[in-house]
Specification:
By secondary structure, this protein is of the alpha/beta class. Helices cover 31% and strands 26% of the residues. The chain has helices spanning 22-31, 48-59, 86-89, 99-106, 125-133, 164-175, 190-201, 233-246, 261-269, 307-315, 335-340, 370-382, 393-396, 402-407; strands at 2-7, 12-17, 38-42, 63-66, 72-75, 83-84, 108-112, 137-141, 144-148, 156-158, 180-184, 205-207, 213-217, 225-228, 248-253, 273-276, 280-285, 294-295, 320-324, 344-348, 351-355, 364-366, 386-390, 412-417. Its EC number is 2.5.1.7.
Amino acid sequence: MEKLKIRANGALNGEIIISGAKNAALPLLCASLLTRDTLHLTNVPMLRDVKTTQKLLQGMGARVLTDNVHEFEINCSGINNTCAPYDLVKTMRASILVLGPTLTHFGEAQVSLPGGCAIGSRPVDQHLKGLEAMGAEISIEHGYVKARAQRLQGAHIVMDMVTVTGTENLLMAATLAEGTTILENAAMEPEVTDLADCLVKMGANIQGIGTPTLTITGVEKLHGCTHRVVPDRIEAGTFLCAVAMTGGKVVLKHTAPKTMLAILEKLSEAGAIIEAGDDWISIDMQQRPKAVDIRTLPYPAFPTDMQAQFMVMNTIANGNSKVVETIFENRFMHIPELNRMGARISAEGNTAIIEGVEQLSGTTVMATDLRASASLVLAGLVASGETTVERIYHLDRGYENIEQKLSGVGAIIERVSN
């Protein structure tokens, strides 16, 4: 099993190219199920979750061509299987995203209830409630969601909670439904907007993109298009936190600063000098970071996917801080590992209190989920001695070549096998 070995090496300096967003690429790949034409995607990150989605689509009968340099062509005209099996779905919760497009295009779908990161309950009830409101017949049998509909019907759906994948599933389903669907309390994340923009290129009729109310008028069929995946704001935020912790000056290229305002504001509060253009961000940090309080909320507020990275920055910050996690109830599993490295973090319920220390101490730590993995890598960049991060398959689900990108700006980090 692979692991990362990291040693602190002072300030980071140079440039990092940011990859396409995992959380945008996965629903875009699933959107190919809505048309018999070819969907051409560029700037696709080469990640474990992307490869899993590729296998899932191929298992359903899709033809997926990739040059392995971030471009995919997906054609679903040969779909002969509407089942997403457990052996693939168990590794990636986003597999549920095949449910809406498969059902609306082919009239039936069977999708295993999903697995993925162990960061708490992420129920699919909002997905199912919305599809039932659109006329789907749904049952859960032997761990599978089984759905049928001759043709989905437009409906007015008020979502009980903001859910990104729920919004994406219902949005895709509504594009081919008969009549008009209104989704209220829809997620506004940039990745949802990116999906909606691609669907419009494919011929969908969607109003209210980027707002909490989406109005979708169904069409008879969609066609293919070419679409570029938006930059990964979470990858960019992770590298910004790395520089905020180590010091130095780094420029991130191929970014989307306008999607990261809450993150950039908190980094400025921590003492970093942030500059940004249309597609680049520079960070200059010449001091120990100041402690900053964090509260996670749906976009455009501070993202839950950046909580662990800011928490580890706070462990070596000047002062005390509080982190409140409101999205996932079990997303503090990195705390025991950070405390083993000398951090002083106490947690009660969804609140963590961090007392900043001057330095962490390297040791062997174990990744428990994707973003927790990133926080442990960041800790290793500033810890004395050597840090070994095990179970990095979590990391590979969301970060493309993280060790190469960090090495390129001066980090000492190496991937090794047992």
